[in-house]
Amino acid sequence: MSVRTVSAWKTRHLDFLQVLKAGKTEADDLVERALYHRAVGYSHEIEKPMVVDKDVRIVTYTERMPPDTTACIFWLKNRNPEEWRDKTQVEPSWAGKKPSEMTDEEIDAAYLALQPLLPSPETVN
To answer: Which tens digits make up the pLDDT trace of 10-39?
Structure first.
């Protein structure tokens, strides 16, 4: 089936579109849960064939997966970006003010901040 056919069906058949969306939502939920478990660590049961007393037996044991730092960082940056983003931007106190509303210190700070953007005296004729 071509992409064009699927797109046409989505516009003509709303129930088809809803089923596609539900499938995406379910997949997203599964991945979100898996990322969470990877971030905080988890345990799961494993059955493995092992030789015990010269006999092959299926042994069940609990495997512990420790928390994954990368998954933690990814989770936090996406769930709470204001607190966990790498670069924080701080608005200067003079941002958005008219010069008449600024203190002398704010005018000085604005001038220094804009200095690299202003043309040099040699280029102004």
So the answer is: 889 888 888 888 888 899 899 999 999 999
CB-CB contact of 72 with 39 (8 Å) = yes
Tokens of 78: 């996406």
Q: How much is the pTM?
A: 0.51
Residue burial 51-70, b: 16+ Cβ < 10 Å; e: rest: eeeeeeeeeeeeeeeeebee
Query: Environment class of residue 109 by beta-carbon count within 10 Å: exposed (0-12), middle (13-18) or buried (19+)?
Result: middle
Neighbours of 18 (CB within 10 A): 11
For tokens 């040699």, the residue is 122
The Cα-based distances of 92 to 8, 80, 96 in angstroms read 51, 23, 9
Closest to 20 measured CA to CA, from 4, 32, 7: 7
